[in-house]
Amino acid sequence: MTLHGVGASTGDLDARAVHWIRERLAGTGAGVAGDKATLERALAGAITDGGLGLDGAWRMFADVAAPANIGLDSDRFLAFIPTSPSVASVWMDAIVGTANFSAESWLEAAGAIAAENQVLELLARTAGMPSSAGGCFMSGGSIGNLSALAVAREQAGSRRVVVVADTAHASVRSALHLLGMQPLVVPTGADSRLTGAAIRRAVAGRTDIAAIVASAGSTNAGVIDDLAGCADVAAELDAWLHVDGAYGLAAMLLPELRDRFAGIERVDSFIVDPHKWLFAPVGSCALVYRRPELASAVHTQHGPYIDSIRTADDVFNPSDLGYQLTRRASGLPIWFALALHGVEAHRAAIRAGLRLAEAMADALEVCPDTELLMRPELSVVLFRRHGWVADDWRVWSADLLQRGTAFVAPTTHRGEPVGRLVFMHPLTPMSIVDELLASLTARG
Ligand SMILES: Cc1ncc(COP(=O)(O)O)c(C=O)c1O
């Protein structure tokens, strides 16, 4: 019985795995919310001293663990922030897992890192950053925000207060807590946008502002903050400006939308999650700094065995730029998909989500039972259903999931329970607009 090498006793696992991946890539439904007790019972005895053998272990995975999940990658997943990895990126992700490129350092993974850097350059160039900008890929937006804010703190001397909008993603507040920094929460107005004017009012007379965090696509409403206004105030305060574009900043690749991100060229750091709107599998965040050398001064890890990975002065190891040492080459899947299909194909896929959001908004606007809260700026649609309270939204989303129509999650807007739909999967059929509308009008 061997674990490794060509003699490993895994039977036809490779064929099963390839078959499973192909089936998944052909499409998956909204999935199910698994029941804890049922799952624990069904998985009992999976790990034994002697092993179950291929049939037994595969059954545990394919018949028990795999089906009891929501399909985040389903074209009917319209909650939270969905993911819709391209076929090319999924296969490359499987290769990345197989090769284990040790993508923390040039010494170990120059080829993988050089390829990843092309994606970071594309994003930095599109943002209008100088050619000296640089960054790294990390595991996700939360760790990207944390890494950038750690650099902001280092630049701030004794200042520890960070301006955040009331719409900022939870990971920003969490990062500030970990870093011992305090949020100064600035309320957004009716349009849910953080503006330079609102920040100026909130910080008047203060000398302790270390940084401003703006969103390029807030999670709940998909709103892009006034990045140019934020940049003006950041300059006045000599504060770091970080933009959390985990969800929405990928849309700056669309020339017709670029103006909405005006000011992004002036920020100190930003993140974009390819596993959100750049069609890569989960586990990928692009973190870009205007001056990567500042990040390197904060994040470079030192130690007797680690120092030997530093072989040249003219390159940054990815692990020098973010809070992660051993690192999957999580930028390779999106790099490969871009290399294979080109940027334009990715733009077209983003446009598909925008079109769906527009169509849904149009339908909700004319329906007498519903009211649109705001026109979607990106691909999030927020709306009221007249007469519905929190329980109605819960029943609605449970119903939709049970019927396999869609996975939607209730949310609130300024404390009021409202409907929220996020369209990012390019294969979501336009007919879903009518299906959802019917579900909203069927009940009183
Ligand atoms: C705007 C924004 N920032 C940060 C995050 C956190 O990203 P991750 O879940 O990849 O850690 C999210 C997640 O949805 C997000 O929407």
Descriptive notes:
The protein is α/β, with parallel strands linked by helices. It has two domains: 242 residues, Aspartate Aminotransferase, domain 2; 99 residues, Alpha-Beta Complex (Aspartate Aminotransferase, domain 1). 41% of the residues lie in helices and 12% in strands. The chain contains 15 helices and eleven strands. Strands 1-7-6-5-4-2-3 form a seven-stranded mixed beta sheet, with helices on both faces. Strands 8-9-11-10 form a four-stranded antiparallel beta sheet. Helix 6 crosses helix 7 and helix 8 runs parallel beside helix 9. The longest helix has 24 residues. Pyridoxal-5'-phosphate binds next to helix 6.
Which helices and strands occur, and which strands form pairs?
Layout: H1 13-25, H2 36-43, H3 53-65, H4 87-99, H5 106-127, E1 134-138, H6 141-155, E2 161-165, H7 170-179, E3 182-186, H8 196-203, E4 209-215, H9 227-237, E5 240-244, E6 269-272, H10 274-277, E7 285-289, H11 292-299, H12 332-341, H13 343-366, E8 370-372, E9 380-385, H14 390-402, E10 411-413, E11 416-422, H15 432-442
Helix pairs in contact: 4-12, 5-12, 6-7, 6-11, 8-9
Pyridoxal-5'-phosphate binds at residues 81, 140-142, 145, 169, 171, 215, 219, 244, 246-247, 273, 285.
Question: Which key terms come to mind for this protein?
Answer:
444 residues, alpha/beta, Aspartate Aminotransferase, domain 2, Aspartate Aminotransferase, domain 1, 2 domains, 7-stranded mixed sheet, 4-stranded antiparallel sheet, 15 helices, 12% strand, binds pyridoxal-5'-phosphate
